[in-house]
Amino acid sequence: SNTERTYIMIKPDGVQRGLVGKIIARFEERGFKIVALKMAHPTEDHLRKHYADLANKPFFPGLVKYMASGPVIAIVFEGLDAVKTGRAMLGATNPLASPIGSIRGDFALAVGRNICHGSDSVESANKEIDLWFPEGITSWKSVYEGWLYE
Ligand code: DAT
Ligand code: MG
């Protein structure tokens, strides 16, 4: 539905490399609506919760350290098929396998420095939104909605 939400996070390398505006612009231009946005410097403990499903992977300690190495931009975008379209806009987990035109395919080289996170299902989006925005999100009506949706 039009109100599907996804959690998108610009990772510390995306922030350090000055790609925040470019990444947000892609989602805005596609038609997605920002319903929550903030900068945060997450703790390793918070990131262990965010990536709990990957706790047994050999790269997990390095992943948590990298993600805690600087501030991130936490965003919730809302719109039609936000989760699947958000994943398509990111590309593959490995930038090498990401199509040109995708965020990782245009801006990243290494799997361990892939600049942006996106929820992989509606269920994980809801969990991630609760984890990163316990204060809640901001619902609002965009004047473009009549031109984005039938
Ligand atoms: P995605 O971010 O595409 O959802 P994921 O959830 O499987 O991928 O993994 C989370 C992050 O962990 C990923 O963005 C980068 C890192 N990662 C995944 N596989 C990795 C690997 N084989 N080596 C190093 N880092 C990896
Ligand atoms: Mg994932």
TrEMBL record:
<dbReference type="GO" id="GO:0006228">
    <property type="term" value="P:UTP biosynthetic process"/>
</dbReference>
<keyword id="KW-0547">Nucleotide-binding</keyword>
<feature type="binding site">
    <location>
        <position position="59"/>
    </location>
    <ligand>
        <name>ATP</name>
    </ligand>
</feature>
<feature type="binding site">
    <location>
        <position position="114"/>
    </location>
    <ligand>
        <name>ATP</name>
    </ligand>
</feature>
<keyword id="KW-0067">ATP-binding</keyword>
<dbReference type="GO" id="GO:0006241">
    <property type="term" value="P:CTP biosynthetic process"/>
</dbReference>
<feature type="binding site">
    <location>
        <position position="11"/>
    </location>
    <ligand>
        <name>ATP</name>
    </ligand>
</feature>
<feature type="binding site">
    <location>
        <position position="93"/>
    </location>
    <ligand>
        <name>ATP</name>
    </ligand>
</feature>
<dbReference type="InterPro" id="IPR001564">
    <property type="entry name" value="Nucleoside_diP_kinase"/>
</dbReference>
<comment type="similarity">
    <text>Belongs to the NDK family.</text>
</comment>
<dbReference type="GO" id="GO:0005524">
    <property type="term" value="F:ATP binding"/>
</dbReference>
<feature type="binding site">
    <location>
        <position position="87"/>
    </location>
    <ligand>
        <name>ATP</name>
    </ligand>
</feature>
<keyword id="KW-0418">Kinase</keyword>
<feature type="domain" description="Nucleoside diphosphate kinase-like">
    <location>
        <begin position="3"/>
        <end position="139"/>
    </location>
</feature>
<dbReference type="InterPro" id="IPR023005">
    <property type="entry name" value="Nucleoside_diP_kinase_AS"/>
</dbReference>
<dbReference type="GO" id="GO:0006183">
    <property type="term" value="P:GTP biosynthetic process"/>
</dbReference>
<dbReference type="InterPro" id="IPR034907">
    <property type="entry name" value="NDK-like_dom"/>
</dbReference>
<protein>
    <recommendedName>
        <fullName>Nucleoside diphosphate kinase</fullName>
        <ecNumber>2.7.4.6</ecNumber>
    </recommendedName>
</protein>
<dbReference type="GO" id="GO:0004550">
    <property type="term" value="F:nucleoside diphosphate kinase activity"/>
</dbReference>
<dbReference type="InterPro" id="IPR036850">
    <property type="entry name" value="NDK-like_dom_sf"/>
</dbReference>
<feature type="active site" description="Pros-phosphohistidine intermediate">
    <location>
        <position position="117"/>
    </location>
</feature>
<feature type="binding site">
    <location>
        <position position="104"/>
    </location>
    <ligand>
        <name>ATP</name>
    </ligand>
</feature>
<keyword id="KW-0808">Transferase</keyword>
<dbReference type="Pfam" id="PF00334">
    <property type="entry name" value="NDK"/>
</dbReference>
